[in-house]
Design brief:
alpha+beta, FAD/NAD(P)-binding domain, Gyrase A, domain 2, 8-stranded mixed β-sheet, 19 helices, 38 strands, about 25% helix, globular, GcvT/YgfZ_C
């Protein structure tokens, strides 16, 4: 390894684990040569060395699966390029199910796997025992086989990547700790180390469990926390097959693989042990923590059931080390908010070996061209908020984060730890009215309302979760009467200044130059025409615009806007989310209720759709915005936070006359889906453009130049090759949740982007993009000619394609 520290590099990578080495390797493949990787001790000495080396391919969606699939592709061939063996073996894997509910999850997973190009299928318990001699299937109900999963030796794979990076021109320096990061005008300019300074254009934080401290140097939130993680290796066991398929018993929170004739077993316990509350020791290098045999017990209990020979086997090594986990058990990659050219690739949640290849490739694409080849929002570092680096929060959450990987992955599964964090002004009012809360971005939100005598707790089930009947009542109340939901968690951004109009006109595809009180829905697209976000913009005066965006994307959207304000512009963008609460009153009786609350004229003529006015309710002055995300007449009320309680009480009092129903987020989601309203991340992403998404009405090509205009002009002129459509299931009692495979004339063609039950139309509804596999422009005629099915739990269920939406396809009810 080189020991001479250069004074300049184009890119500095901090951290020499498998992710850092993968990033260096892939950057050289993109043509970068001036790369320096700095490792505080030795390559792989932090967390990488302690890994089990498993390569599992199937993840929660197509994009994450693609990252994991690439690891198998790369590590199976890397030795041919570098001459350094990665230890790759294609062992395959078997997932076993102790319960029928787990089998339903795996059936849905196997349908996804097939759609994502992964061979995964159910096998008999006898077949599983034949593949893994010494394994017992007693007490199991099913097993699933993935023949192409594999494993590597973590340190060997790291050294192979490092050799490939050096061959490509990268410099790797060990025993060199980074002590500072230099910036100017919020842009990276260099790093300081124990051996000297390096000026640079980019810094990539691949520092593993040191990543949070590296982020703090430049005031970037990298919310991760170490937890103890362990596996045990037995002495050789007679009759054990070498390199048998990895066995994963999610119900027993344990995995098993062959290791030197014995069994390596480890897993993801339901309640983990946080570690490092007083910091990471300076001398950490290939460090193991004191043995804790009680901690191993939960894995041994499962082990005795799956491999009875463990009763007589000896543990030759119990390895306990530490690695970092994030609040949602998903890793972090991408350019950090607030600092230009500061990239992140850490917080791997014990899937660093499987994720390393894809993460390194994605970061190299991001740096080379300004974006990854496919959208990666589920692992984008911008999904996190500054407050989430709070030590107490991370300590409490990491206890649960470790177990997320193997828990039942029910839709709407809620976290139980580190709550509550953020409560709206009416939180206790909602609780008193039976709210069962869900959480997003730290906010407690009413998910559904339990009637008197019913416990307000989530009871998960793939086919009939306990909240369905109450969600139905709330859904239908909005369709036929009036409902109120609270969404103070929505991101609020105030853009102000003499140049605010020109800044927003450049960012937005729609025309923002509307009179005071005008409200505009607009896509925000990148240079390729793909969605970066979609927002509503309310013009409150000549130089002030009030933006509403999703709760989870507030950091991302604020950063996107701020980066595109010219240095010489008189314009600011400020997050004012916590200054306002939002109550939405929706439904055909909403005008009657609103008129009973205020002296303002709420008629359609005086208060038309897509406008906003300041009105008085109770003792407060609220901004009433006539928009809807549920497909009905209604108003969103933005209320200064400290005035919210009396406004809520006044609405509830007046609402008795109109049978007002409190509504939770489950109903809001089913209402928006039934009406065909898109959701950023699932239905619209940076890989989708407004014309494909059916949102071309939000593009005004004649307003002048804006970001992405050239791409959208070309797309409109040439026509689209894919299009979003909706589906209803022909069977009325099936639940679907998104990512279900779609078949056209018996051939897989796409997956659903989001799904829910449509209580008004009486069946499940879904969205998904269609593309003609034979090429050419897509037409409505071609769409309607097909026969469609949606795969659910291994069954292809007939579905009816809908070009508009199943409910109110012309969107007339919002404009009544």
């Amino acid at each position: 390894m080189s020991t001479t520290l250069p004074t300049h590099a184009q890119i500095v990578i901090i951290g020499g684990g498998i992710v850092g080495c993968s990033t260096a390797y892939h950057l050289t493949k993109k043509g970068f040569k001036d790369i320096v990787l700095l490792e505080r001790k030795e390559l792989g000495a932090g967390t990488t060395f302690a890994a089990a080396g498993l390569l599992a391919q199937l993840r929660q969606n197509q994009e994450m699966t693609n990252l994991a699939k690439y690891a198998v592709e790369l590590y199976s061939t890397l030795e041919q390029e570098t001459g350094v063996n990665t230890g790759f073996v294609k062992t395959g894997a078997i997932g076993v199910c102790q319960t029928e509910d787990r089998r339903l999850e795996w059936l849905r997973g196997s349908a996804m796997a097939k759609a994502f190009g992964i061979d995964m299928h159910e096998i008999s318990l006898k077949e599983a025992e034949d593949m893994v001699p010494c394994m017992s299937t007693e007490g199991l109900v099913s097993a699933f086989y993935l023949p192409n999963d594999g494993q590597v030796d973590p340190i060997s794979a790291t050294q192979s990547l490092a050799k490939g990076a050096r061959n490509g021109g990268a410099t790797i320096i060990e025993n060199c700790k980074v002590t500072d990061i230099k910036t100017k005008d919020k842009t990276i300019t260099g790093v300081s180390t124990e051996l000297g300074d390096i000026s640079c254009e980019y810094v990539v934080n691949c520092a593993g469990m040191w990543g949070r401290d590296i982020g703090k140097i430049v005031n970037v939130s990298i919310p991760l926390h170490p937890a103890e993680h362990l596996h045990a290796i037995t002495t050789p066991i007679p009759g054990l097959k070498k390199h048998f398929p990895t066995v994963r018993d999610f119900d027993g929170v344990t995995y098993f693989k062959e290791e030197s004739g014995g069994i390596l077993l480890g897993g993801f316990e339901v309640e983990a042990k946080p570690w490092g509350m007083k910091g990471i020791p300076e001398n950490w290098k290939f460090t193991e923590l004191p043995e804790d045999w009680d901690q191993l017990e939960v894995f041994m209990e499962c082990g005795y059931d799956r491999f009875p020979a463990l009763e007589d086997a000896q543990i030759r090594h119990l390895q306990i080390s530490a690695e970092s986990f994030t609040p949602d058990n998903a890793f972090m990659i991408g350019e950090a908010p607030g600092v230009k050219n500061f990239f992140v690739g850490c917080g791997m949640n014990s899937v660093g070996i499987a994720g390393s290849a894809g993460v390194g490739r994605a970061l190299s694409e991001w740096i080379a061209q300004g974006y990854p080849e496919e959208q990666l929002w589920p692992v984008d570092v911008r999904r996190y908020f500054p407050w989430q680096q709070n030590k107490t929060y991370l300590h409490d959450r990491v206890k649960e984060s470790v177990g997320i990987l193997y828990e039942q992955h029910y839709p709407n599964r809620q976290r139980a730890t580190a709550r509550p964090v953020i409560c709206s002004p009416v939180h206790d009012r909602l609780k008193d009215n039976g709210a069962c809360f869900s959480m997003i971005a730290g906010w407690e939100r009413a998910d559904w309302f339990a009637p008197e005598g019913v416990d307000a707790v989530h009871k998960y089930d793939w086919r009939s979760p306990n909240w369905l009947p109450y969600q139905k009542e709330e859904h239908l109340a909005v369709r036929h009467g009036v409902g109120m939901y609270e969404l103070s968690s929505m991101g609020n951004i105030l853009v102000q200044g003499r140049d605010a109009m020109s800044v927003l006109q450049n960012i937005c595809t729609n025309d923002i130059n509307v009179p005071k009180g005008g409200v505009v829905y607009t896509p925000v697209v990148n240079e390729r025409g793909g969605f970066e976000t979609d927002i509503t913009v309310t013009r409150t005066d000549d130089e002030t615009f009030f933006i509403v965006t999703a709760a989870g994307t507030t950091v991302r959207d604020l950063d996107y806007i701020q980066r595109r304000i010219p240095k010489d512009a008189i314009c600011t963008a400020t997050d004012v989310t916590h200054g306002y609460a939002m109550l939405a009153i929706m439904g055909p009786k909403s005008r009657d209720l609103m008129q009973a609350l205020t002296s303002a004229d709420m008629s359609n003529e005086a208060f038309p759709f897509s406008t906003a006015q300041e009105i008085d309710i109770a003792y407060a002055r609220c901004t009433a915005v006539r928009m809807s995300y549920v497909g009905e007449l209604g108003w969103e009320l933005y209320i200064p936070s400290h005035f919210t309680l009396p406004v809520f009480d006044a609405i509830m009092k007046a609402g008795k006359k109109f049978d007002l129903k409190l509504v939770g987020m489950q109903a809001v989601n089913s209402l928006r889906l039934e009406t065909g309203y898109r959701h950023w991340e699932s239905d619209i992403t940076p890989d989708d453009n407004p014309y494909e998404a059916g949102l071309g009405f939000g593009v005004k090509l004649d307003k002048g130049d804006f970001i992405g205009r050239d791409a959208l002009v070309k797309i409109k002129e040439e026509g689209i090759e894919r299009k979003i459509v909706m589906f209803t299931l022909d069977e009325s009692d099936i639940m679907i949740y998104g990512n279900e495979p779609i078949y056209r004339d018996g051939v897989y063609i796409s997956t659903t982007t989001s799904s829910a039950y449509g209580f008004e139309v009486g069946t499940a509804v879904a969205m998904g993009y269609l593309k003609n596999p034979e090429g050419g422009k897509i037409t409505n005629e071609w769409i309607k000619e097909g026969k469609y099915e949606i795969m659910v739990e291994g069954k292809a269920l007939p579905a009816t394609v809908v070009l508009g939406s199943p409910y109110d396809p012309k969107n007339l009810r919002t404009k009544m």
